[in-house]
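HUMAN: Mind making up another protein with tokenized structure?

ASSISTANT:
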Amino acid sequence: MTPKLPASRGQLARLPWFAITLFLVWRVVIAVHAVAVVQTTPPVIPDYFLYQTPSRVSHEASLPAGSPLASWVEPWRRFDTTWYTHVALTGYTPGSVAIVFPPGYPLLIAALTPLVGSAVLAALVISSAACLAVFVLLYRLVERHFGDVRLARISLLLFASYPAAFFLLAGYTESLFLALALGALTAAEARRWVLAALCALMIGITRIQGFLIVLPLAWIAYQQVRAAGRARPAMAAALLAPFVSIGLYLLYLNVNGLGTLDEAWRSEWRAITMPPWVTVAAYFERLGTGISLPHENRDAGAVLFMFLSILVLGWRTWRSEGSRSGQGTVARPPWGVYLLYTLPPFLLFLMRYVPNEAQFNSVMRYSVMLFPCFIIAAFLVRRTWLALVIALALWAWQLDLAGQFVRWEWVG
């Protein structure tokens, strides 16, 4: 008779060690690389960044002299990270365009800063913890939906090696947003709708487009109601939660005379909302006249990657839902959930139009949040050796882009 493992050892054995190990190795490599880059090529902070906004005072206060791990942390005090730490340290002030950075992430930074010694380190700790949660949740999700460990590993390899994936480790909101999104979807599938509602509530004030999480959540709720024949009140709470948190934030801005998000986007980033085809047409016009920028072309490549993935998701959804018509069961894998999670944000990304300037700004970074695209890529790759070859090539590109980021050359 085989002896039983102690409960604690059994729980350890069930952890997704591939996901955890991949995260730890990747985290160390990115950290060492960033330090090496700034030591060999000392970065120069752009004057416009310090003397415009956020202020030099909050920039320096985010990483005081003698802070713990300062030499490891400083390379990540860049671009949007300084905006988030600025809000964490000073809050919102009238006339400041910092209002486009919602309060969820800054609130967490403000809470953790006294414990770790600096706002930048707090931001990195939060992002790293959220990124680890993303790795575990994504691995579990693919394994659960497809019953295929190899597919889960390949999905995670391609996800971690995506050229802009290092932003999941930076003081940005991508990893927190994705952890909350995966948490909400996982909780909803497990019929833990109160937990899903809490995740949805937080996601609304992490990124404004977080309200779109209600679409895949509504699909899951619909499938469960169709299968079980009844709805639960917590389902409604989860679907309303992001609108509640976003609404409270907008009310706060209005009551305190802090301006509107649209005004802030227009004044600082010159961005306006237009139909997606306007943005796409503007890019092709720039490309045809030879004035498109290198980062703009990279972002266009990310747009193409997402577009092709969405086409496959749409086809998979049509096939799976058509074959299940009238069966009253919950789909596995839930292609409809994947499509509703991916398509609306993709269209929203394309609606940010900047007249007479580069288009698709930051779309390469945003696309890392659309995890179904990497599952589709894993389906196409299939073979582990091929996934490793692709991942190694992409990691080389990722390290180059991370180097540009820490040298203040690329905002992402």
In short: The longest helix spans residues 294-323. Residues 18-172+384-412 form one domain.
